[in-house]
């Protein structure tokens, strides 16, 4: 289990392990993604961030502008869909913190370079105006919608053909989570829902979301995919589902849990 509540943030050292990222890709050797310092050559343009402890070992994420020779580049999304729970936690947190470090090199208030990090928490300190810059977290909703013995599944244009998932979207300013569920579903597939129920949450590193999962029930309307968002959408029987995300992801968890509920009711 990844422990993130450590009291101090150490500097890179020989006993630690490292996750390497270059150009938004995770670097691997023989499908392994945790390395010792001796496995690669740190460079002057490498950026590192402490992410926590895993099995008592300090874990850092290192970002390179260009991948070192010999490593294989892997898309984060594919790795997350194929990972177990422990690997998911490591990779997701590593990518979020590496993104924060890369995107917050200057103070957003006064423009001063951010070169000082807090010793006990993930924060960068502006030495000019004293503001602290923390990692950004963007709340999103993701929802599994039920209509009788069927579940609503959709495929966005960025997903491969044949793979389906739930409706998801960002929460807007001044909006609560349930309002975001209703709005996103109506905007993306043109239906209304009711009986919205919270199910769970999961960090999602594309690049800094917190996915908040819900169940909902169909109320009215006909499926009309948003032309700029949804490639296709439809209702699928709980016992005849298409290819869906790995249950390590909250999307897969919502779909399988909802299908099991329907199966138990039908037994």
Q: What would your notes on this structure say?
A:
The chain is an alpha+beta fold. The protein has two domains: 2-103, Nucleoside Triphosphate Pyrophosphohydrolase; 138-266, Nucleoside Triphosphate Pyrophosphohydrolase, CATH 3.90.79.10. It is 21% helix and 34% strand. It has four helices and 15 strands. It has helices at residues 76-81, 85-103, 177-189, 250-266; strands at 2-3, 17-22, 25-28, 47-54, 57-64, 72-75, 116-117, 124-125, 132-133, 138-147, 150-156, 167-170, 192-204, 209-220, 230-237. The strands form three sheets. The chain has a six-stranded mixed β-sheet. Strands 10, 11, 12, 13, 14 and 15 form a six-stranded mixed β-sheet that branches. A hairpin with a 4-residue loop joins strand 13 (192-204) and strand 14. The longest helix has 19 residues, at 85-103. The mean pLDDT is 92. This is NAD(+) diphosphatase. GO terms for molecular function: metal ion binding; NADH pyrophosphatase activity. Keywords: Hydrolase, Magnesium, Metal-binding, NAD. Its cofactor is Zn(2+); Mg(2+). Belongs to the Nudix hydrolase family. NudC subfamily.
């Amino acid at each position: 289990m990844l422990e993130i509540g450590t009291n101090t943030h150490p500097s890179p050292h020989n006993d630690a392990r490292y996750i390497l990222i270059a150009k938004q890709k995770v670097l691997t050797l023989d499908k392994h993604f945790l390395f010792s310092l001796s496995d690669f050559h740190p460079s002057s343009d490498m950026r590192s961030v402490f992410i926590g402890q895993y099995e008592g070992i300090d874990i850092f994420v290192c970002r390179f502008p260009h991948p070192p020779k010999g490593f294989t580049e892997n898309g984060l999304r594919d790795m997350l869909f194929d990972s177990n729970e422990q690997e998911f936690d490591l990779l997701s947190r590593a990518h979020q913190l590496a993104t924060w470090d890369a995107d917050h090199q200057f103070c957003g208030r006064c423009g001063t370079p951010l070169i000082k990090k807090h010793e006990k928490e993930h924060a960068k300190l502006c030495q000019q105006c004293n503001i602290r810059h923390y990692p950004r977290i963007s709340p999103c909703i993701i929802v599994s919608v039920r209509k009788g013995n069927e579940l609503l599944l959709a495929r966005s244009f960025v997903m491969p053909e044949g793979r389906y998932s739930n409706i998801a979207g960002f929460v807007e300013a001044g909006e609560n989570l349930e309002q975001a569920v209703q709005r996103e579903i109506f905007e993306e597939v043109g239906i209304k829902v009711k009986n919205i129920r919270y199910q769970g949450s999961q960090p999602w590193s594309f690049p800094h979301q917190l996915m908040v999962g819900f169940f909902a029930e169909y109320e009215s309307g006909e499926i009309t995919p948003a032309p700029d968002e949804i490639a296709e959408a439809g209702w699928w029987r709980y016992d005849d589902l298409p290819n869906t995300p790995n249950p390590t992801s909250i999307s897969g968890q919502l779909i399988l849990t909802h299908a099991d509920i329907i199966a138990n009711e039908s037994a």
